[in-house]
From TrEMBL, chain A:
<dbReference type="InterPro" id="IPR015847">
    <property type="entry name" value="ExoRNase_PH_dom2"/>
</dbReference>
<keyword id="KW-0698">rRNA processing</keyword>
<keyword id="KW-0007">Acetylation</keyword>
<dbReference type="GO" id="GO:0000176">
    <property type="term" value="C:nuclear exosome (RNase complex)"/>
</dbReference>
<keyword id="KW-0963">Cytoplasm</keyword>
<feature type="domain" description="Exoribonuclease phosphorolytic">
    <location>
        <begin position="21"/>
        <end position="152"/>
    </location>
</feature>
<dbReference type="InterPro" id="IPR050080">
    <property type="entry name" value="RNase_PH"/>
</dbReference>
<keyword id="KW-0694">RNA-binding</keyword>
<dbReference type="GO" id="GO:0034475">
    <property type="term" value="P:U4 snRNA 3'-end processing"/>
</dbReference>
TrEMBL record, chain B:
<keyword id="KW-0597">Phosphoprotein</keyword>
<keyword id="KW-0539">Nucleus</keyword>
<protein>
    <recommendedName>
        <fullName>Exosome complex component CSL4</fullName>
    </recommendedName>
</protein>
<dbReference type="InterPro" id="IPR012340">
    <property type="entry name" value="NA-bd_OB-fold"/>
</dbReference>
<dbReference type="InterPro" id="IPR019495">
    <property type="entry name" value="EXOSC1_C"/>
</dbReference>
<dbReference type="Pfam" id="PF10447">
    <property type="entry name" value="EXOSC1"/>
</dbReference>
<feature type="domain" description="S1 motif">
    <location>
        <begin position="75"/>
        <end position="156"/>
    </location>
</feature>
<dbReference type="InterPro" id="IPR025721">
    <property type="entry name" value="Exosome_cplx_N_dom"/>
</dbReference>
<keyword id="KW-0694">RNA-binding</keyword>
Length: 245, 204
């Protein structure tokens, strides 16, 4: 498309952000009373809803139960109205299955599953509006939902999608940037320890740029973790005020 | 919750903490619930209030508590309250409802085998004369189960067994001995493996 620059000379992106600027994050915990934990998170225009059930007895095949830890069962799905064109197959397609597997791997690294042997924790995430960075928004929403459910975790899990354009890493990509041919990398981080839970990339990137891109992703994740921290503390304050009355 | 405000009267205002927050070093406190230890420091694993309890001689125990009780899983040796859902000649299937006095949000399934119903004369046990579907039973967990089975429970103690049962007429029965209960309406006696529990402690 003519005239659509991903990064202008003055350093502004398509939506007016600077290269390292994140989109506005708004979140709420405890949106559903019937689930053990739930959270709603918006990052720019991408909106995700995460719901957590558990830990409870293994459903379905008991042979999949692990004798020393809990099994984390994730399901990722997109609402049919989440994309520009109505989505024909919201779940069960290959992308959703892959995302679900990534979410499972990410949360197995953070949740202390060895406290709940032979049980199952379900994490369901639904994208209500998709504007880039789907995986990252899912991880952030699911972190809040797991905290809301009271399941012990080592640390927050914060994720961000970064891209590389004109020798500059761009943090928190939106849909237009992702589809505009930017090499994007998604990273999930445990911010306090600086441990990486998952790195995912399926574009082409020169080896020399990898280090810078990962650094930029880690910085962006730490930014997200500060916002999530605020949300959790505020939710705790509100809950304690309500219970005291 | 009243316990929370009662605690704040005795000690300094409770501190909020989030998962991953460093609370103190291993030398200052020992770990309680809701925390974990890593590289010589104690970190929180829940979002809640930090509670430091002094144990006298030993190091104070630090734990993190939430407003709502976390889900409790039945552990080996725990006394559980369950409801009988089905019986056959070899075992009784139950749903575990309470662990100790904490209700479970979700039902766990358990099994009481024929040889675990009572201590004496294990092979002569008749399940139909020990339990019926719908009975509330106090049992102890002996195993978390393996690939094939659910939680294994036992009632082979005097204090374990049926606590609440309804007769065929529908009335709640009164225990008359360790193996019989009587219906107040029809005065019919029915066989159950009765628990020796004072009526004041019944929780169903």
């Amino acid at each position: 498309m003519a005239g659509l620059e991903l990064l202008t000379d003055q350093g502004y992106r398509l939506d007016g952000r600077k290269a390292t600027e994140l989109r506005k994050v708004q979140a709420r915990m405890g949106v559903f009373a019937q689930a053990d934990g739930s959270a709603y998170l918006e990052q720019g225009n991408t909106k995700a809803l995460a719901v957590v059930y558990g830990p409870h007895e293994m459903r379905g095949s008991r042979s999949r139960a692990l004798h020393d830890r809990a099994v984390i069962n994730c399901q990722y799905s997109m609402a049919t109205f989440s994309t520009a064109e109505r989505k024909r197959r919201p779940h069960g397609d290959r992308k959703s299955t892959e995302m679900s597997l990534h979410l499972k791997q990410t949360f197995e690294a953070a949740v202390m599953t060895q406290l709940f042997p032979r049980s199952q924790i379900d994490i369901y995430v639904k994208i209500l509006q998709s504007d880039g960075g789907n995986y990252s928004v899912c991880v952030n929403a699911a972190t809040l939902a797991v905290i809301d459910a009271g399941i012990p975790m080592r640390d927050y899990v914060c994720a961000c999608t970064v891209g590389f354009v004109d020798e500059t890493p761009l943090a928190d990509l939106c849909y237009a940037e992702e589809s505009g041919g930017v090499s994007s990398l998604a990273l999930a981080l445990l911010p306090r320890g600086g441990q990486i839970a998952l790195v995912q990339m399926d574009a082409r990137l020169h080896q020399d740029h990898l280090e810078t891109l990962i650094e930029a992703a880690m910085t962006a994740c730490k930014g997200v973790s500060k916002v999530l921290d605020e949300v959790v503390r505020q939710h705790l304050q509100e809950a304690s005020v309500l219970s005291r009355e | 919750m009243r316990w929370l405000s009662a605690l704040t009267d005795n000690m300094s205002p409770l501190r909020l903490c989030v998962p991953g927050e460093k609370l103190c070093s291993v030398e200052d406190c020992s770990t309680g619930t809701g925390v974990y230890q890593r590289h010589g420091y104690i970190y929180s694993s829940l979002a809640g209030y930090v509670l430091r309890k002094n144990e006298g001689e030993e190091l104070p125990v630090i734990s993190v508590v939430r407003e709502t009780e976390a889900q409790l899983l039945p552990d080996v040796g725990a006394i559980v309250t369950c409801k009988v859902t089905g019986i056959n000649s070899r075992f009784a299937k139950v749903h575990i409802l309470y662990v100790g006095s904490t209700p479970l949000k979700d039902r766990f399934r358990g099994t009481i085998r024929k040889e675990d119903v009572r201590e004496s004369e294990k092979d002569k046990v008749d399940i139909y004369k020990s339990f019926r579907p719908g009975d509330i039973v106090l049992a102890k967990v002996i195993s978390l189960g393996d690939v094939q089975s659910t939680y294994l429970l036992t009632t082979a103690e005097n204090e374990l067994g049926v606590v609440v049962a309804h007769s065929e007429a529908g009335a709640q029965m009164i225990p008359i001995s360790w193996r019989e209960m009587q219906c107040p309406q029809t005065n019919a006696k029915e066989f159950r493996k009765v628990a020796r529990v004072q009526p004041e402690y019944l929780e169903a």
